[in-house]
Structure formats: C-alpha cells, structure tokens
C-alpha cells in the first residue's frame, strides 16, 4: 500500500515542503516528460476530422503524430481547407464538404471536431447518434440548453465525449491539484484567475481567406440555424465576436480558467451565482460580445471566485489560489507556493491603545507564548517554485481521448465536466447582458436572474 504523505504542518520549511512533494508525487516534474505507449497495428484508431480551421489544423497535425492514430477523412465547408488538410495529412486523404459522410463511414472510429460554437450541439448529437465517440472543442456548448441536450445525448448513447480545454492534461495543474488536495493551502478563501491580450489577432481580428466566395464556401450551411444573411467574410473568420455564433471571451478564454480551476480544486459543478461587468472598450468593429469581461462567482460552500479577461491589455494567464495557510500561483509551466502561518508575527498593535501597565503585561505574556525557546530555530516560510519543461498539453489531451476510444476507460474531461465549465461561461455572459446576478437552477436546468 502506498504510504500517505504526512499531515501538513501549520508552517513550512523549504525542506519539509520538498519532502512532502516528493512523497506525494513520486517523481520530479522536471524529469518526467510525457511519454506514449507503443500501440499494436490492430489497435489503430481511425478518426474523422471535422473543421480544419485555426484550431482544427493543429489538432489534425498533432493527432496524426500520435502512435496508433490515423486520419481517415476530413470535412470542411470551405474548400481551401481541403487543400490544407491534404498538406497536413497527405495527398490521399479523403476530403468532403459533407461531414455526415464521416459519420456514416463504418471504418471511422471517432470524430475530432473544431467547429464554431453554434455547431457544437448538432455535431455532438449527430456523432454519438451515429455511434461515434467525439472530441469537441471548448466551450462544449453554445447555450445552456444545448449543453443539457448534449449531456442527455451522450449519456443515452454510451459513447465517449472529450472536451478540448487542455488544462486538465497539464502537468503543472496536476501538481497544483495534489497540493490543494493535501490541504497545503488550509481553508480556501478566494480564487482569482486572469488572462489578457493586446493585439488584433488576440482579439480575433483574423484576416479572412482572400478566395472566400459562395463558390469556395457553403455559406448557407455554415450559418446552421442562425437567421440567414449574405456572405460576410469577417463573420466567417471572426465568428467569436458575435453571440449568434460564438460565446466571446467567456467561451474562448474564461473556459480555460474555469476548467483548470475545476480540475485543480477537484470540483465538478456549475457556479451557484455569477455577477459580471465589462464592455466593448477597444475593439469597436461591430462585434456584440465584450472585449473586457470580469466575473465574480459563488461556488459551493460560498467560495468566492474572481475571473477577468481583457483583449486590450496583455496579462499572461495565471491563477492565484488563496488559503489560510498560503498562496498558490499557477502560470503556464510554473507554480509557486508561498506558505503563511496565519498567526500573529508580533504583538498586536491594537494594544497601543492600552495604558502602559496593561500594554507591558500583554507584551510580556505574548512573547512568553510565542517566542522560540532557546536553541529552537524560528519556522521558515519560504516560497517554493516548481517548473516543468516546455510542455504541450494538447498532445496528452488528445492521447487521453484516443486511448479512451481504444480501452473504453473514462476521459479526463467528459460531457458533465465540460457542461459545468461551459455553464460558468454562459452565466458570465448572461450576467453581463442582463446587468444583474444570475443563478443556475439545477431542477429546471435554466438560468435565473
């Protein structure tokens, strides 16, 4: 039986911290790069790729480099991406505008889909209905109702769904999860997260393909069930800017912060309440989704969570998880834990209001109770930092999905986890547009103001 790590003390020395970490993890993060197992040819997973856009082309290129994984076909409504798919996966790759051909192909085991948010529900419901497992990009759903329907369809089908917000496959987030679970932070008091960009591309001002036309793109189908409008190349390329097609900074960026937080804190539930502020502060280009969006949540146990997104100021993605025994900061491939005793470090300054005799007596008693005994060193409270090598969490996240397709074992980010993370984003948007607090009613599965 694996020996449990010792109960965390109220204060930490650097040596104690490192010893506990080693006991808990059994390995050094810096010396533990991700490794793939060998796969027999008979276990090869054949997937169909739907959507070869900005995110999809990366997923396609990464997936075909994994052991025992091959692409058996690709679908996109824009013909230029058929060419791109063949450039990535080989000239003989079958390509089509009609994604249902991939769903009907009995030689295809699963689907990897990177399509606009307003296509997610349809793609998932049709894929699992056709007997296909599916990897769907984040956020899982375009609306709360879509998410509810997707959870029902996946559970009914018994198929596997993995959501593509990869923080749950990050080694550094896994390390943070262990530290929180061990109680190293004490009682959680507040969680903060933020992410900002300061460039046109970061604000989705993507240049549309110059050959885009009604001949090269099935624009009518691309619009799905949104009221039809004439071809607009900017909407095609920059769909995240409009709520009719996307979910704004909440669905693009906040979902990473939320899913990472859920994973690190070991929670799998929607917020109890959300309140938001924001606006279109910089990118006045016709978009109807905010480019600045800050949201305060209450989670279970009335844990306050504050998340902020900004497309007008650069702020590298970071979490600050605060507790009664310290602060855990997580950013990219680095985390820092700064322990705190939570105790007075000196006599209370309030006693300055005492008469001298009372103040002197208080201070004498305080020093008697708190000063180290002769020969006893004071407890050290040093910050300790861990880093990983330059680490791509997309590869292990995709690998987890394909392994689940082979073995039928659970994925790390299933339909319920993805639904709960997406609900936090939908609540942030709803609170922003309503300018009031909103709650999630699990009984009716609706948002209420």
Strand-helix topology:
Elements: H1 14-25, E1 45-50, H2 54-63, E2 69-75, H3 80-89, E3 95-96, H4 100-104, E4 110-113, H5 120-129, E5 133-137, H6 144-157, E6 161-164, H7 171-181, E7 188-196, H8 219-222, H9 233-237, H10 248-265, E8 273-279, E9 292-299, E10 303-310, E11 315-323, E12 326-331, E13 334-339, H11 356-370, E14 384-387, H12 394-407, H13 415-434, E15 438-441, E16 446-448
Parallel strand pairs: 1-2, 1-4, 2-3, 4-5, 5-6, 7-10
Antiparallel strand pairs: 7-11, 8-9, 8-15, 9-10, 11-12, 12-13, 13-14, 15-16
Helix pairs in contact: 5-6, 6-13, 7-10, 10-13
- Average pLDDT level: 91
Query: Counting H and I runs of at least 4 residues, what is the number of helices?
Result: 13
Structural class based on helices, strands and sheet pairing? alpha/beta
What's the story with the biggest beta sheet? 10 strands, mixed
What is the helix content? 25-40%
For the biggest β-sheet, the strand order reads: 14-13-12-11-7-10-9-8-15-16
Low-confidence stretches: 1-33
In short:
This protein has 449 residues and is an alpha/beta fold. The protein is 33% helix and 20% strand.
Q: What would you note in describing this structure?
A:
It is a single chain. With 449 residues, this protein is an alpha/beta fold. It has two domains: 8-27 and 166-210 and 238-367 and 379-392 and 415-449, Dihydrodipicolinate Reductase, domain 2, CATH 3.30.360.10; 41-165, Rossmann fold. It is 33% helix and 20% strand. The protein contains 13 helices and 16 strands. It has helices spanning 14-25, 54-63, 80-89, 100-104, 120-129, 144-157, 171-181, 219-222, 233-237, 248-265, 356-370, 394-407, 415-434; strands at 45-50, 69-75, 95-96, 110-113, 133-137, 161-164, 188-196, 273-279, 292-299, 303-310, 315-323, 326-331, 334-339, 384-387, 438-441, 446-448. The strands form two sheets. It has a ten-stranded mixed β-sheet with strand order 14-13-12-11-7-10-9-8-15-16. A six-stranded parallel β-sheet has the order 3-2-1-4-5-6, with helices on both faces. Helix 3 (80-89) links the parallel strand 2 (69-75) and strand 3 (95-96). Helix 7 (171-181) packs across helix 10. It is elongated. The model is unreliable at 1-33 (pLDDT under 50).
């Amino acid at each position: 039986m694996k020996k449990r790590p010792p109960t965390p003390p109220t204060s930490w020395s650097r040596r104690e911290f490192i010893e506990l970490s080693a006991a808990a993890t059994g390995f050094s993060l810096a010396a533990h790069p991700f490794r793939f197992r060998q796969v027999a040819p008979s276990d090869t997973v054949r997937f169909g790729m739907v959507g070869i856009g900005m995110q999809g082309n990366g997923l396609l290129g990464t997936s075909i480099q994994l052991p025992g994984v091959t692409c058996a076909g690709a679908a996109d409504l824009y013909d230029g991406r058929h060419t791109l798919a063949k450039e990535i996966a080989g000239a003989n790759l079958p390509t089509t505008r009609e994604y249902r051909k991939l769903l009907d192909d009995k030689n295809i085991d699963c689907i990897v889909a990177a399509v606009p948010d307003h296509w997610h529900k349809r793609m998932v419901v049709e894929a699992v209905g056709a007997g296909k497992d599916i990897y769907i990009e984040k956020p899982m759903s375009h609306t709360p109702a879509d998410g509810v329907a997707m959870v029902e369809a996946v559970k009914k089908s018994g198929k596997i769904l993995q959501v593509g917000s990869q923080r749950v496959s990050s080694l550094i987030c896994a390390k943070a999860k262990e530290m929180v679970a061990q109680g190293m932070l004490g009682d959680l008091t507040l969680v903060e997260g933020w992410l900002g960009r300061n460039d046109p591309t970061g604000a989705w001002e993507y240049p549309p393909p110059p050959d885009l036309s009604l001949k090269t793109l099935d624009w009518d189908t691309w619009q799905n069930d949104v009221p039809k409008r004439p071809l607009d190349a900017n909407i095609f390329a920059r769909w995240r800017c409009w709520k009719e097609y996307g979910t704004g900074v909440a669905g693009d960026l906040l979902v990473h912060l939320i899913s990472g937080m859920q994973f690190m804190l070991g929670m799998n539930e929607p917020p109890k309440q959300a309140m938001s502020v924001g606006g279109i502060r910089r990118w006045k280009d016709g978009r109807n989704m905010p480019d600045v969006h800050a949201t305060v949540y209450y989670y279970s146990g009335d844990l306050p969570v504050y998340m902020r997104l900004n497309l007008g100021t650069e702020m590298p993605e970071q979490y600050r998880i605060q507790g009664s025994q310290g602060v855990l900061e997580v950013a990219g491939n680095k985390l820092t834990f700064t322990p705190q005793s939570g105790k007075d470090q000196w006599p209370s300054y309030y006693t300055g209001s005492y008469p001298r005799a009372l103040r002197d007596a208080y201070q004498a008693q305080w020093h008697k109770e708190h000063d180290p005994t002769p020969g006893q060193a004071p407890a050290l409270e040093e910050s300790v930092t861990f880093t990983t090598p330059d680490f791509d969490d997309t590869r292990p996240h995709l690998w987890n999905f394909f392994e689940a397709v082979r073995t039928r074992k659970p994925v790390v980010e299933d339909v319920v986890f993805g639904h709960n993370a997406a609900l936090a984003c939908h609540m942030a948007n709803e609170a922003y547009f309503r300018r009031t607090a909103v709650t999630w009613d699990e009984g009716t599965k609706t948002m209420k103001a």
